[in-house]
Design brief:
Layout: E1 6-12, E2 15-20, E3 23-28, H1 32-43, E4 46-51, H2 61-69, E5 73-75, H3 80-99, H4 110-130, E6 136-140, H5 147-153, E7 160-163, H6 171-174, H7 180-187, E8 192-195, H8 198-212, E9 220-222, E10 227-232, H9 239-247, H10 249-261, E11 266-273, H11 280-293, E12 301-308, H12 315-335, E13 343-346, H13 352-361, E14 364-367, H14 376-385, E15 391-395, E16 408-410, H15 415-427, H16 432-444, H17 447-461, E17 470-471, H18 479-485, E18 489-493, H19 513-525, E19 527-531, H20 536-543, E20 549-552, E21 557-559, E22 566-568, H21 573-590, E23 595-598, E24 602-606, H22 612-629, E25 635-640, E26 643-648, H23 653-663, E27 669-674, H24 677-684, E28 694-699, E29 708-710, H25 713-729, E30 745-747
Parallel strand pairs: 1-4, 1-6, 4-5, 6-7, 7-8, 8-10, 11-12, 11-14, 12-13, 14-15, 15-16, 17-29, 18-19, 18-27, 19-20, 27-28, 28-29
Antiparallel strand pairs: 2-3, 9-10, 20-21, 21-22, 22-30, 23-24, 24-26, 25-26
The structure holds GDP-alpha-D-glucose (GDG).
The site of GDP-alpha-D-glucose has 20 residues, from strand 11, strand 12, helix 13 and helix 14.
Length: about 750
């Protein structure tokens, strides 16, 4: 039997291709992710999919593919303009600064966004091609945020995990992203979403709530299509590899040489990519303040700052380089003496072995990002020191700050705080105990345990099977076949969220011209019922003049097409109002923006207009109170999309659907569409004997209660228009009229 494989997707492959005369050569990188995934490779076969780092002419694709296959990699080829728009553009000029809380550095342009979407689509296509049933898919980082949803849209059913290496910003910051819904929906296609810290999970949940109105639990988001697990998984490093490097000649030489160059001085190390998120200017200013405020350290300390060049083509990075050059020049000019300069600034890539030597030689590490997903340098410093404690001064805005309690945390924006932390670290050697805590974390939370935990959780997510729900296309079999044979078609269509998108004020959800025309056409050729939770008077007002039947308040009364209202006798509005109304009124008063909707035999409390977070909180409390006060009463409480509704237990869309199916038992085609929990009742109520002629469709996403799904109201309307056309080409014939009605109902209007 085939062993299911793991497909890893990241924007860049860990292999960079370059052209040497007539051949292609592959240079492998040894980044943290490569190390982390080594141990996963022992567990199951894996393929790495990504961009090989350089444009490859189409005629060469085959050759490059072959070379990469030897490295277990599959290329996603990108043109120069694609990488510009996708990578340098939307990824690095919009998502990167915004996710690091630097909104003023974001430059959104629609061209970059189009390239981002197109490249994500390319990745999804390549992954779909590589994936076989049972495989696991692990997508990495912000450049590929749309990929999980795109894979689902392509019908991929393998478990999908996503890890975000950078922070997720506060909902307030995130909301400014022009394409905020699309990125969130992209991520929500995954079964598992993992972040470095709980802070990012909490921001993500908040963004889902505020942008999409999706409520969640701390570790779970329940969608009607699937559940998304949220996991906190701070990345680790490979400490054994660093210990090994420390034993090597290169690290030792670096150690000797740097110590010999600065005899008797205390060394402070900083290692960062030259990126504006890493807070290098803030670090230099803090160091300058130390020398100003504490003159005793002049000539006694040296800051060695390695700033590896990064994204050098981007203007923000060129500007940062100029700023750092100037600051280093100013400080060295002011505090340098014939005995040496206080800052050694290296604007080059330094080998990892030499970095280990530098970490060992430096008593203090100064890491001051203004925002950082995790920060591996902090972990590497601890690992390189071995049993010789060092002082770690770390920005509280790095993810690592949540895991390293022994570090001295600083706010990098406070020059004085950085200077004072440095002064304290210079005065007092770190205690064994505080350093030991940090070492324990680095040694137990390794890159290998991180990737294995991720895979464990992804495998656990795979236990829940995905419903085999397909995208609705009425022109394809088996639907087209059913339609071609049908002479008496019957439709049950929910209204809000199905034919009409949700709006802030329920009263504003009037039907547009397109919906009305579609219902007029369809109603002329089929028996159509709008099955809604709305009151009879609203339905009458909006749809009463159309040739369609109406079902109000989840089945309280039914009005057949061209007929009269018939009321379900078993329910009484006043009893319900006496108990529930006072509670709803109290909550409406306490929750600005919320409203009560009065129905004949139901009461609804809408909180879509309230502050999303506060609304959710109040809704939870109201639900608990309702549960208490309605115990043993014939009412049921329904939690819909930002609405709580109390109604008679036997007054459901399921009851209404069963009733209508009895009335129209001669129908030879049944189409049911809906989008919320009350519609699930309607779909579940369809008896087995109807299954061969029934088509159920969910709006918004996949749902196990329906056979098909469409992405939006507009998609559904398009499909219904098509059905109206097809039925229009046939001889019109309706199902038996509703003269033969259930005896439970008596004529009334509400
Ligand atoms: C992203 C997130 C998250 C640095 N200079 C040189 C060099 N380095 C190495 C370091 C370290 C790595 O680069 C940098 O890792 P960081 O974690 O500090 O930052 P990002 O590159 O921004 O990584 C970050 C990470 O993803 C993992 O999830 O921690 O928050 O932004 O390993 O040692 N390596 C070499 N020469 C250098 O000059 N060889």
């Amino acid at each position: 039997m085939r062993k299911p494989k793991l497909i890893v997707a990241s924007a860049r492959l860990p292999v960079t291709m370059s052209r040497r005369q007539d051949s292609w050569e592959a240079a492998t990188s040894t980044g943290g992710l490569v190390t982390a995934l080594k141990s996963v490779a022992e567990r199951r076969p894996f393929t790495w999919l990504g961009w090989p780092g350089t444009p490859v002419p189409e005629a060469e694709h085959k050759r490059v593919r072959k070379v990469l296959a030897k490295h277990g990699s599959l290329p996603v080829f990108l043109t120069k303009s694609e990488t510009e728009g996708f990578y340098e553009g939307f990824s690095n000029r919009v998502l990167w600064p915004l996710f690091h809380n630097l909104g003023d550095r974001t430059h959104f342009d629609p061209q970059g966004w189009r390239a981002y979407k197109a490249v994500n689509e390319k990745f999804a296509k390549a992954i779909e091609k590589a994936a076989e049933p049972g495989d696991f898919i692990w997508v990495h980082d912000y450049q590929l945020a749309r990929v999980p949803e795109l894979l689902r849209l392509r019908g991929v059913t393998c478990p999908i995990g996503f890890f975000l290496h950078i922070p997720f910003p506060s909902a307030e910051t995130y909301r400014s992203l022009p394409v905020r819904g699309s990125i969130l929906n992209g991520l929500l296609g995954a079964d598992l979403l993992a972040f470095h810290s709980y802070e990012y999970i909490s921001h993500f949940r908040n963004a889902c709530l505020r942008v999409l109105g999706i409520e969640s639990e701390p570790e779970l988001i329940r969608l009607s299509s699937h559940s998304v697990r949220l996991a906190q998984l701070p990345i680790g490093i490979d400490p054994a590899e660093i210990t090994e490097m420390a034993r090597g000649a290169e690290a030792k030489n670096e150690y000797e040489s740097v110590r010999a160059s600065h005899p008797g001085k205390t060394l402070i190390i900083g290692v960062d990519r030259l990126d504006y998120t890493k807070g290098i200017p803030q670090k230099l200013l803090g160091f300058e303040e130390l020398l100003r405020a504490h003159p005793k350290w002049r000539n006694r300390v040296v800051l060695i700052q390695i700033a590896a060049p990064s994204r050098t083509a981007v203007s923000e990075y060129q500007q940062l380089k100029r700023q750092v050059d100037e600051l280093v020049g100013r400080i060295n000019g002011r505090y340098g003496t014939s005995a040496g300069a206080p800052i050694v600034y290296v604007n080059q890539n330094v080998s990892r072995e030499r970095l280990v030597g530098l970490f060992q030689a430096s008593e203090i590490a100064l890491i001051t990002p203004v925002r950082d997903g995790m920060n591996l340098v902090a972990l590497e410093y601890i690992a390189a020191r071995g049993s010789n404690p060092g002082s770690l001064i770390l920005s509280e805005f790095a993810g690592a700050a949540h895991c390293l309690p022994g570090a001295r945390l600083v706010n990098p924006h406070s020059v004085m705080q950085v200077a004072e932390a440095l002064n304290e670290a210079l005065e007092k050697r770190p205690t064994e105990a505080s350093f030991r805590h940090m070492r324990e974390f680095v040694e137990t939370n390794t890159a290998m345990t991180w990737s294995n935990s991720f895979l464990d959780q992804l495998e656990a997510a795979a236990v829940e099977p995905r419903p085999p729900v397909e995208r609705l296309d009425v022109e394809l079999p088996p639907i087209s076949k059913l339609v071609s044979k049908a002479t008496k078609p019957l439709f049950f269509l929910d209204y809000d969220g199905t034919l009409r998108s949700y709006v802030l004020k329920p009263d504003d959800a009037t039907p547009g011209d397109r919906v009305r025309k579609m219902l007029t056409d369809l109603g002329a050729r089929a028996t159509v019922y709008i099955v809604s939770g709305r009151t009879a008077s609203t339905l009458e007002q909006w749809l009463g003049d159309l040739p369609v039947g109406l079902v109000c308040e989840h089945g309280l009364a039914i009005k057949p097409p061209h007929g009269e209202w018939l009321r379900n006798k078993g329910v009484s509005g006043p009893t319900l109002k006496k108990i529930v109304q006072p509670l709803f009124e109290e909550f409406t008063q306490r929750t600005p923006g919320s409203t009560i909707e009065q129905k004949t035999a139901a009461l609804a409390w809408h909180y879509r207009g309230a502050d999303p977070e506060f609304g959710t909180f109040q809704a939870k409390e109201l639900l608990a109170l309702l549960e208490d006060s309605l115990r043993k009463k014939p009412f049921s409480v329904l939690r819909g999309a930002r609405v709580i509704e109390v109604r008679y237990a036997e007054n459901t869309k399921g009851h209404a659907a069963r009733e209508l199916l009895k009335t129209h038992s001669d129908a030879d085609f049944l189409f049911v569409a809906g989008d919320d929990r009350t519609d699930e009742e309607m779909m579940d109520a369809i008896p087995k004997s109807w299954h061969s002629r029934a088509v159920t469709c969910w709006v918004g996403q996949r749902n196990a209660h329906a056979h098909y799904w469409v992405q939006s109201n507009m998609d559904l309307i398009g499909q219904l228009e098509q059905l109206a056309r097809v039925f229009g080409e046939k001889k019109p014939s309706r199902t038996r009229s509703s003269k033969k009605r259930s005896s439970r109902r008596s004529s009334t209007t509400s």
